[in-house]
């Protein structure tokens, strides 16, 4: 089955045609609308769907936020605000004329990453560190979604009770410290106003503040990984996202995890599908791929 896969993130909206062999063709990408209103998102979806819909038999969407019964709710309005109860599958079906399913983007990516490792692991966690921090959990070969779609929103677990307030309304979430948005927000002095990509560039040049901001992110992620090991006994944690896949980030995570007690160690790996994991995972779910 050929699937039109769409990945809606806090920064970009990507679409691609994915065939039965998981080959990606006709890939398109546009910025996520700045206003992040229902009208703006609908217009952006139409822009990426229209040139590609004739190539596909159905549509699969991987989107940031909570997906429940085809509705999208932004858990962190700073990442994708103004979209409480947005009728995602209905909107896309109407725009494309094709059947549609939707799932959280990190859940979709988790399924893709598990799919290439299912002969080696049955318990796996995927963590994306990007504009926000998300996750997907595989237990006994099954993707955990939850009754209301919230399962895997690991970026909204507690990292520091005295930390910054998160856009979700909680204080001290992992996302509020480790995400690309949080790295940029914590920058001061000469780094103030730079985005995470620019801060990583400064770190590669040896800037001590940039290196400290990235280390803080990696240490926070490691505390989450240790907690996840205790809760799920995961055999592997796969890390993706623009921050998670940035040069030098995974080795930092590995270094800090090695400092934790041995019981909380687990294998770490970079996302096999890199930035296309959400697209591939959504397509797999639409194709009915079994574990």
Descriptors:
globular; alpha/beta; 291 residues; 2 domains; zinc; 5-stranded mixed β-sheet; Nucleotidyltransferase, domain 5; kinase; transferase; 11 helices; metal-binding; N-acylmannosamine kinase activity; 36% helix
Structural description of this entry:
With 291 residues, the chain is of the alpha/beta class. The protein has 2 domains: 119 residues, ATPase, nucleotide binding domain (Nucleotidyltransferase, domain 5), CATH 3.30.420.40; 151 residues, Nucleotidyltransferase, domain 5, CATH 3.30.420.40. The protein contains 11 helices and 13 strands. A 5-stranded mixed sheet has the order 3-2-1-4-8, with helices on both faces. Strands 11-10-9-12-13 form a 5-stranded mixed sheet, sandwiched between helices. α1 runs parallel beside α3, α7 crosses α8 and α8 packs across α10. The longest helix has 25 residues. The protein is globular. The two termini are 18 Å apart. The mean pLDDT is 94. Keywords: ATP-binding, Carbohydrate metabolism, Kinase, Metal-binding, Nucleotide-binding, Transferase, Zinc.
> Order of strands in the sheet with the most strands?
3-2-1-4-8
CATH topology of the largest domain: Nucleotidyltransferase, domain 5
Quick one: how many beta strands? Answer: 13
- Approximate strand percentage: 15-25%
Number of domains: 2
Going by helix content, strand content and strand pairing, the class is alpha/beta
Instruction: Tell me the radius of gyration.
Output: 18 Å
What overall form do the CA principal axes indicate?
A: globular
Helix count from the secondary structure assignment: 11
CATH secondary-structure class of the largest domain: Alpha Beta
Low-confidence stretches at least 5 residues in length (pLDDT < 50)?
none
Let me know the CATH homologous superfamily of the largest domain.
ATPase, nucleotide binding domain
Distance between the termini: 18 Å
Note the main sheet: 5 strands, mixed
For the record, the CATH architecture of the largest domain stands as: 2-Layer Sandwich
Query: What is the share of helical residues?
Result: 25-40%
- Average pLDDT: 94
N-to-C SSE string, H for helix and E for strand: EEEHEEEHEHEHEEEHHHHEHHEH
GO molecular function: ATP binding; metal ion binding; N-acylmannosamine kinase activity
Pathway: Amino-sugar metabolism; N-acetylneuraminate degradation; D-fructose 6-phosphate from N-acetylneuraminate: step 2/5
Pfam family, one: ROK
Subunit structure: Homodimer.
């Amino acid at each position: 089955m050929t699937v039109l896969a769409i990945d809606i993130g806090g920064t970009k909206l990507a679409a691609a045609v994915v065939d039965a062999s998981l080959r990606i063709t006709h890939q398109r990408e546009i910025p996520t609308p700045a206003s992040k209103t229902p009208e703006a998102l609908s217009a952006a979806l139409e822009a990426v769907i229209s040139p590609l819909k004739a190539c596909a038999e159905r549509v699969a969407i991987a989107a940031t936020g909570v997906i429940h019964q085809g509705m999208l709710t932004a858990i962190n309005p700073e990442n994708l605000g103004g979209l409480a109860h947005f009728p995602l599958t209905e909107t896309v079906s109407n725009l494309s004329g094709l059947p549609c399913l939707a799932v959280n983007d990190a859940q979709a990516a988790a399924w893709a990453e598990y799919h290439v490792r299912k002969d080696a692991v049955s318990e796996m966690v995927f963590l994306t560190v990007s504009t926000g921090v998300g996750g997907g959990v595989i237990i006994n070969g099954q993707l955990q979604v939850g009754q209301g779609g919230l399962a895997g929103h690991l970026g909204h677990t507690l990292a520091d009770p005295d930390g910054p307030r998160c856009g979700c309304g909680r204080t001290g979430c992992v996302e509020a410290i480790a995400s690309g948005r949080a790295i940029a927000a914590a920058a001061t002095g000469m780094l103030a106003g730079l985005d995470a990509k620019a801060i990583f560039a400064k770190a590669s040049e040896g800037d001590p503040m940039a290196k400290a901001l990235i280390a803080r992110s990696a240490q926070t992620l490691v505390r989450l990984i240790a907690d996840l090991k205790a809760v799920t006994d995961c055999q592997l944690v796969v890390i993706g996202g623009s921050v998670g896949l940035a040069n030098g980030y995974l080795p930092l995570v590995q270094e800090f995890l090695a400092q934790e007690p041995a019981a909380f160690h687990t294998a770490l790996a970079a996302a096999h599908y890199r930035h296309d994991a959400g697209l591939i995972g959504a397509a797999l779910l639409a194709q009915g791929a079994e574990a």
